[in-house]
Amino acid sequence: MNVNLKIYNDEHKEDMVLCIANFFGFHIGLSLGTTTNDIDEDQAEQNLKEWTTKDNQLYVITYEDDFAGFLRIGYRGGNVAWIEDVFVKEEFRDRGIATESIKQ
Question: 39-58: per-residue pLDDT in tens?
Fold first, then answer.
């Protein structure tokens, strides 16, 4: 499977902002039991700034060289790091991309 993780850089900013907005829209839909298309790109851009601080590591997930989503790790101090969020764009789902990203 051709899945790769690359450390986020501004080359992918536009794609990343849209993915973060869709990520939160998806979670809101799960909470409300509906699907939502509410995309707040300003809030997503703020999250992107927070997710690229020293306490986080943000990765771009690529599948066959296409931007497929993101994976975020949060550092909790010492030797503790958590996978905070994983998001795969809808058109890339059901291919094992998130699973392969977590393995990496």
Answer: 678 889 999 999 999 899 99
20 and 47 Cβ atoms separated by less than 8 Å: yes
- Alpha-carbon Rg for the chain, nearest whole angstrom, is 14
* 30-39 tens-digit pLDDT: 677 766 656 6
> What is d(CA 101, CA 62) in angstroms, rounded to the nearest whole number?
9
**Sign (positive/negative) of CA torsion 51, 52, 58, 62?**
positive
Coil, strand, or helix at residue 92? helix
- Nearest-angstrom CA–CA distance, 22 and 63: 18
Q: How far apart are CA 72 and CA 83, in angstroms?
A: 6
